[in-house]
From TrEMBL, chain A:
Domain Aminoacyl-transfer RNA synthetases class-II family profile intervals: 12-317
Gene3D superfamilies named among the record's database cross-references: Bira Bifunctional Protein, Domain 2
Alphabetically ordered keywords of this record: ATP-binding, Elongation factor, Ligase, Nucleotide-binding, Protein biosynthesis
Highest taxon of the lineage: Bacteria
PANTHER family xref list: ELONGATION FACTOR P--(R)-BETA-LYSINE LIGASE, LYSYL-TRNA SYNTHETASE
GO molecular function: lysine-tRNA ligase activity; translation elongation factor activity
Protein name per its UniProtKB record: Elongation factor P lysine(34) lysyltransferase
Enzyme Commission (EC) number: 6.1.1.6
UniProtKB/TrEMBL annotation, chain B:
Domain of life: Bacteria
Pathway(s) this gene product operates in, as recorded in its UniProt entry: Protein biosynthesis; polypeptide chain elongation
UniProt similarity note: Belongs to the elongation factor P family.
NCBIfam families the UniProt entry points to: efp (TIGR00038), PRK00529.1 (NF001810)
Keywords carried by this UniProt record: Cytoplasm, Elongation factor, Hydroxylation, Protein biosynthesis
Localization annotation: Cytoplasm
Protein name: Elongation factor P
Length: 321, 189
């Protein structure tokens, strides 16, 4: 019987110290810590994510099945719309179908929103947080397009570039489906995860920004180039650590996005996900101008400690939970 | 036709790929921050023996390969086929040269081998880890050399050639590890 923690006591102390440092970083900047529900009435519509559901019973409940949150995003946006000001949360989130050396179904996410910031100001703040937590060098910023051009020589934003990327991928013999793949984003995700990500953040933390609009559901479209959206990701040592947006504040667009996600779900034979009307109502009331980011704290701790497996930084990963 | 979803992937699972049955050696989930996830797998092609890396879109289905492994005793070869028998049911199966390939040099009558069957037909024969075979030819060695420094080649009754210590002589039976083709010891007859 393996009752003992898989992380060393030293790793658990490092986790506590990391959380304390994050809390003081935000306290100094007057960002409010909040706590939103893990068990909620609605899940995500994102066809690539899957909620764990739980059954609850009790007199006053409006439904019997509830959703364990994959991210605190919707609830935090409702707080922003209610006038909370800049907020952060250290949240436990749960995602189905994610188990592996780098993935545990339940993990800790640091998510924060900054009023009046755009994505560049938020990247600056993330940079300061990383330097204070990891003692690393200042970051470098590369556009999504330049990252692709450097590694593959193909332009990810033109139809012609996607076709040359397809040829580039077919040569690597990953599977027969590549030559017939109809969705350009799937080809981009394939090249990104297999060939580009491993090269990123090797000498200093690297931000990739200006992602294709098609991959950036909740980000604003770039005013100078409608092919890209104001979304970024942070990479250190080839690991994707954070994902952020200059947030979409348009309720109508959000509702359309939910509907589009559900039509993809239908095509994939997945059940329709109920749309979060409370989020849409909050956006209708008005989300203030803000930028937001989610950062995986377990991965951050792995980087800090040089751990290769997520179980090295969790007291009890799912196999021992 | 039977199939597996990528979320059933694990080491040892048998799938069809490039028209050939394959065994999954390693399976890794690759997930972007948002968007389509992939299963990156290392597979061994069971006929050619090649090990290749393939990537599947997570959530897709892949055709299953009807592959099973059974233990059978080697009987004899008629030159074209190698015949094996199930010691319990006495059922016999013949494997062709492509299936037996390198295993021919380690086949000893009555030894129990592992046969890999695809749709009921043998595609691979794995001999036992250790076999005992007689030396048919080797140079006379120096008496007194018991260290086996360097050694010398010896041809075994099946045609296999292994390096043996100098003191081992023609007509003796030796134990050989079939996984690396190395001499283990002499066997007292």
């Amino acid at each position: 019987m393996n009752w003992q923690p898989s992380a060393s006591l030293q790793a658990l102390r490092a986790r506590a110290e990391l959380l304390a440092n994050i809390r003081s970083f935000f306290a100094e900047r007057d960002v409010l810590e909040v706590d939103t529900p893990i068990v909620a009435a609605r899940g995500v519509t994102d066809p690539h994510l899957s909620n764990v559901t739980v059954k609850l019973c009790g007199d006053g409940l409006s439904q019997s099945e509830y959703f364990l949150q994959t991210s605190p995003e919707y609830a935090m946006k409702r707080l922003l719309a209610a006038g909370s000001g800049s907020i952060y949360q250290i949240a436990k989130v749960i995602r189905n179908d994610e188990v592996g050396p780098q993935h545990n179904p339940e993990f800790t996410m640091l998510e924060w929103y900054r009023l009046g910031f755009d994505e560049y100001q938020l990247m600056d703040e993330i940079d300061q947080l990383m330097c204070s937590l990891l003692g690393c060098k200042a970051s470098k910023r590369v556009t999504y397009q330049d990252a692709f051009l450097t590694v593959t020589g193909c332009d990810p934003l033109t139809a012609q570039g996607i076709e040359s990327l397809r040829c580039w991928l077919v040569k690597r013999d990953l599977g027969d489906w590549v030559k017939d793949e109809a969705d350009p984003d799937t080809l981009l995700y394939l090249a990104m995860t297999h060939y580009i990500e491993p090269t990123l953040g090797q000498t200093e933390p690297t931000f990739i920004y200006n992602f294709p609009a098609s991959q950036s559901a909740l980000a604003r479209i770039h005013p100078d180039d409608p092919r890209v959206a104001r979304r970024f990701e942070l990479y250190i040592d080839g690991v994707e650590l954070a994902n952020g947006f200059y947030e979409l504040t348009d309720a109508m667009q959000q509702a359309q996005r939910f509907a589009a996600d559900n039509s993809i779900r239908m095509k994939q034979g997945k059940p329709r996900a109920l749309e979060d009307e409370r989020l849409v109502a909050a956006l209708q009331a008005g989300l203030p101008d803000c930028a937001g980011v989610a950062l995986g704290l377990d991965r951050l701790l792995m980087l800090k400690l040089g751990a290769s497996q997520i179980s090295d930084v969790l007291a009890f990963p799912i196999e021992r939970a | 036709m039977a199939s597996y979803s990528t979320n059933e992937f694990k080491g040892g699972l048998k799938i069809m790929q490039d028209g050939e049955p394959c065994s999954i050696l390693e399976n890794e989930m690759v997930k972007p921050g948002k968007g389509q996830a992939f299963n990156r797998v290392k597979i061994r092609k069971l006929i050619s023996g090649k090990v290749v890396e393939k990537t599947f879109k997570s959530g897709e289905s892949v055709e299953a390969a009807d592959v099973q492994e059974i233990e059978l005793a080697y009987l004899y070869s008629d030159g074209e086929f190698w015949h094996f028998m199930n010691n319990e049911t006495f059922e016999q199966i013949a494997a062709d040269e492509a299936a037996v390939s390198d295993a021919t040099k380690w086949l000893v009558e009555q030894d129990v081998c592992t046969l890999t069957l695809w749709d009921g037909k043998p595609i691979n024969v794995t001999p036992p880890n250790f076999v005992e075979l007689e030396i048919t030819e080797t140079d006379p060695g120096l008496k007194g050399d018991t260290q086996g420094t360097g050694g010398k080649p010896a041809t075994l009754v099946t045609g296999a050639v292994v390096r043996v210590p100098l003191f081992v002589q023609t007509g003796e039976v030796v134990k050989v590890d079939t996984r690396n083709g190395e001499y283990v010891s002499r066997v007292q007859k």
